[in-house]
Design brief:
By secondary structure, the chain is α+β, with helices and mostly antiparallel strands. The protein has helices at residues 3-13, 19-32, 60-69, 79-87, 97-107; strands at 38-44, 54-59, 113-120, 125-131. It has two domains: 1-34, no CATH class; 35-131, no CATH class. It is built from five helices and four strands. It has a four-stranded antiparallel sheet. A hairpin with a 4-residue loop joins strand 3 and strand 4 (125-131). The chain starts with a helix and ends with a strand. 17% of the residues are buried.
């Protein structure tokens, strides 16, 4: 049994998770062993979309688990990056487990699903948020 599965089952035994919540988490873990998908954020400087100045990749399986446990993005994203993304009207901590599931289910075999693209003309930055 994997350490992740053991932790989830212990949380059920301690009453911290319902069996239904545990089932969802275990399914997310199973999905993680299939095709790996990542939630990605890229920030590029003016006229340079070859090499990002900010690169963040979160496995979707971690995203699902974090959102279900209630941690969401609060403990995952560095504070400076949160402020930068909030300046560009990207509020990652507003994603709910249901929203994440809906997005993932709609992906199918699509290689890349763009959630947001933001251009800051004043600062000369381009931000891309997607799942791949």
């Amino acid at each position: 049994m994997s350490e992740e599965r053991r932790k989830i089952l212990n949380m059920v035994a301690e009453g911290r998770l319902t069996p239904e919540e545990a089932d969802r988490l275990l399914n997310a873990l199973s999905d993680a062993h299939g095709k790996k998908r990542f939630f990605k954020v890229r920030v590029y400087e003016k006229n340079n979309r070859e090499k990002p100045t900010v690169k963040m990749d979160i496995p979707v399986s971690v995203l699902r688990i974090a959102s279900r446990i209630g941690a969401a993005f609060k403990g995952i994203i560095p504070e400076g990056m949160k402020v930068s993304m909030q300046d560009k009207q990207i509020a990652l901590d507003e994603f709910t487990p249901e929203m994440i599931d809906s997005i993932i289910e709609s992906l199918g075999d699509e290689e890349k699903f763009t959630l947001a693209e933001v251009t800051d003309e004043e600062k000369g930055e381009y931000v891309e948020v997607y799942i791949e």
